[in-house]
Write a structure and sequence with these properties.
6 strands, Trna Endonuclease, Chain: A, domain 1, globular, alpha/beta, six-stranded mixed sheet, 16 helices
């Protein structure tokens, strides 16, 4: 008997649409995480005017003390190359932001227009870099190309371009790990299972908001006298996630700038794997420092001509470190913060008997340098830190 799964679909775009929708939900959850951390986010509105609208308090641009509105159009793509201005134009977020600008320009709002892009910008493209900083109007090439794309005169962009920002976003494979790591920092002591459960609940509520599905007591939670129907079911406030916040005990050392970096900054495979294993911030910082220290040692030895030319020597060391790391990982799997336990145990073992692994030696039989090399091996995706 045949199976239709073997038949090539005439239209196979549905899966991509779902993935893009889910990515947008994860990005919207970032605003909820900032609310949970006590940040400046007042609320986030989904699928009203733009994909995401984030309202913030305390922005210096709001001279009247009102809310600052960030209208966000989110764009994804499968390519991993950096975004140029041509790439941004081809995805058409600027057309959507232009429509938004024309719709709200007379509404007495203080706002910016953000094109959120999955990936990173091409630093060699001056036009897209200028546009990302709100300086598109000062770049002749950018101004000309955007005017042509929007089919307007360059003079018509005078008020529009200073409001535009391009914000690089984590890739689909990183966003969930990054967000759950922030939750783990906000709720120290909670198990990985509890953090995952809380994050899934935030996702569910955000999906409902994106579809306009109200939760129980939604009108009361919005704290609005007469909310318009278009917004009533699409807005998530701090009150709407207050029960989640009660499950978290935010430590004083979780600073908002650290939170922003975790949510939006670039990450290596090493950091992603550590976050997946619920590593503390201290362990992540130590792992990055140790890896850099080991790399500096290696490059210094290469420059001096002291590094052996026989590649098999380095391979032998890496294989020994890999076996030790995997064995240590298996022994600590299932713990609330497996990465921390694995990191500490691995460092202890290397300090106790570095000669067993660094036999030649390449890293001066120094446990600290060997730990840095082990972190580099993890960055090459050869072992994790206790996560599935």
């Amino acid at each position: 008997m045949g199976d239709p799964i073997e038949v090539k679909a005439p239209d196979d775009t549905g899966s991509g649409v779902v993935r893009r929708f889910e990515y947008q939900v994860h990005i919207a959850v970032q605003a909820a995480l900032e609310m949970l951390a006590g940040g400046s986010v007042l609320h986030v509105t989904c699928e009203h005017i733009e994909d995401i609208v984030v309202a913030r308090s305390g922005d210096p641009r709001c001279t009247d003390g009102g809310a600052f509105w960030d209208f966000q159009q989110i764009k994804t793509r499968d390519a991993v190359e950096p975004w140029t201005l041509a790439d941004v134009i081809s995805k058409k977020p600027l057309k959507s932001l232009w429509r938004t600008h024309k719709a709200v320009v007379g509404a007495s709002l203080t706002y910016q227009l953000t094109a959120g892009i999955e990936g990173h910008l091409d630093p060699a493209d001056d036009a897209v870099v200028a546009l990302s900083k709100g300086q598109g109007g000062d770049n002749a090439a950018c101004r000309k190309r955007v005017a042509k794309h929007l089919e307007v005169t360059e003079d018509a962009l005078t008020d529009f371009l200073p409001l535009v920002r391009i914000r690089p976003l984590p890739r689909r494979g990183d966003i969930e790990l990054r967000n759950t790591r922030v939750l783990a920092d906000l709720g120290p002591g909670l198990t990985v299972a509890m953090i995952d459960a809380l994050y899934n609940e935030l996702l569910r509520r955000t999906r409902d908001a994106t579809q306009g599905l109200p939760v129980a007591r939604w009108t009361e939670l919005l704290v609005l006298d007469s909310p318009p129907p278009a917004v009533l079911n699409k807005r998530i406030t701090a009150a709407a996630v207050a029960d989640v916040r009660q499950r978290l005990t935010r430590p004083d050392h979780v600073l908002l700038e650290d939170l922003s970096q975790q949510l939006h900054g670039p990450e290596t495979a090493l950091v992603r794997k550590l976050r997946a294993g619920a590593a503390s911030r201290e362990v992540i910082e130590e792992a990055q420092m140790l890896r850099a220290h080991a790399e500096r040692h290696r490059f210094k030895e290469l420059a001096l001509g002291a590094w052996p030319g026989d590649h098999a020597i380095e391979t032998d060391l890496d294989q020994r470190l890999l076996l030790l790391a995997r064995r240590t990982g298996r022994s600590h799997k299932g713990q609330p913060q497996p990465a921390d336990a694995i990191f500490d145990e691995l460092q202890r073992l290397l300090d106790a008997d570095p000669g067993t692994y660094d036999r030649h030696p390449l890293y001066a039989q120094d446990g600290v340098l060997l730990m840095g090399r082990a972190c580099a091996i993890s960055d090459e995706c050869k072992f994790g830190w206790g996560s599935d």
